[in-house]
Amino acid sequence: MNMTAKKVAKLKLVELAENNYHVFLTVKTNGKRNIFILDTGASGSVVDLNYYTKNLAAKHKTINQEVRGLHSTQSQTHVGKLKTLELGTLQFKNVQVSCIDLSHVNQAYKMRDLKLKVNGIIGSDILVKIGAIIDYKTMELLVRS
Length: 145
Description:
Elements: E1 5-10, E2 12-17, E3 20-29, E4 32-38, E5 46-48, H1 49-56, E6 61-63, E7 67-69, E8 72-74, E9 77-87, E10 90-100, H2 103-111, E11 120-122, H3 124-130, E12 132-135, E13 140-144
Parallel strand pairs: 4-11, 5-10
Antiparallel strand pairs: 1-13, 2-3, 3-4, 3-9, 5-11, 6-9, 7-8, 9-10, 12-13
């Protein structure tokens, strides 16, 4: 069976150091436009805790569970819910996300003179759900149609 793929979102590839990259995309969280990292190695999607409480919802649940990722370990995680998450042409409702402090990530970008401010990470929870295909040649996020 021959299946075609349709474009969901445009991606941006940034070289952090020689042959070391991060992939970014623009998403909308509760209607607000943000830059997120696309991370196939992240088990779940994440929103920066400070951004979440100031701009999306003040309410979240705190869980005493160690979380590791992106060069940090935190003893607590906060769980929140997005009313909507728009990933290019796809929209999800009532999306549960972890809310953690991503300031260390933005600080690392600043130290490399990258003019990027990320407010979250799209992880494998969503990528697996949509059957994502990352086309590095065209820098597009695709799904089979």
